[in-house]
Design a protein that fits this description.
Elements: H1 13-27, H2 34-45, H3 53-60, H4 64-73, E1 85-90, H5 93-97, H6 100-111, E2 117-118, E3 124-129, E4 141-143, E5 146-148, H7 153-164
Parallel strand pairs: 1-3
Antiparallel strand pairs: 1-4, 2-3, 4-5
Length: 165
């Protein structure tokens, strides 16, 4: 199960600044440190908040636009903390050809969420992804980091029960 967001317990921008600066200190010696820093910030805070971007940019001598571009390009980085469980549905062509559109619509209805949304009670976040590398077992999904192949409506129902329990 993913770690619960520490950002919710963060009381101030100064505390976020301190934590982000500490993460940059730990990773700035690496060659190409931006991605490891973004991953570490998300692991620590549960997301990559907007206020972290200028800190990272300044410390790495990059523009804020460069840091934002990388953080927004990769689907794993989010601006808001995710729910306790994350369900990702593959939307790539191979999965679409095997019924992923139908499965995605069923998932949105079952979870009562659109892609990119988190349930009000914080239990689950529903996300679209574009290829999980499980094309031979399409349609595919990922639940809390574990890939699931040959997903159909019944499997979505079972996943919904598991994450809501």
């Amino acid at each position: 199960m993913p770690r619960r967001s520490a950002l919710a317990g963060t009381s101030s921008t100064a505390e976020i600044d301190d934590r982000v600066n500490s993460i940059v200190d730990q990773h700035s010696h690496l060659e190409g440190p931006l991605l490891p820093i973004l991953h570490a910030v998300q692991e620590e805070l549960g997301c990559v908040p907007q206020e972290a971007l200028p800190i990272i940019a300044g410390r790495l001598n990059l523009s804020r636009a460069e840091v934002h571009g990388v953080a927004s390009f990769y689907h794993d980085f989010r601006e808001q903390p995710a729910g306790r469980h994350t369900v990702r549905i593959c939307r790539a062509e191979a999965c679409q050809s095997m019924g992923a559109d139908r499965v995605a619509e069923h998932a949105k209805g079952r979870f009562k969420l659109n892609f990119g949304e988190t349930a009000a009670d914080g239990t689950v976040t529903l996300e679209a992804v574009y290829c999980l590398g499980l094309c031979a077992c399409a349609p595919a999904a990922m639940v809390d980091g574990k890939v699931v192949g040959r997903v159909d409506e019944a499997r979505i129902d079972a996943i919904a029960e598991e994450v809501r329990a």
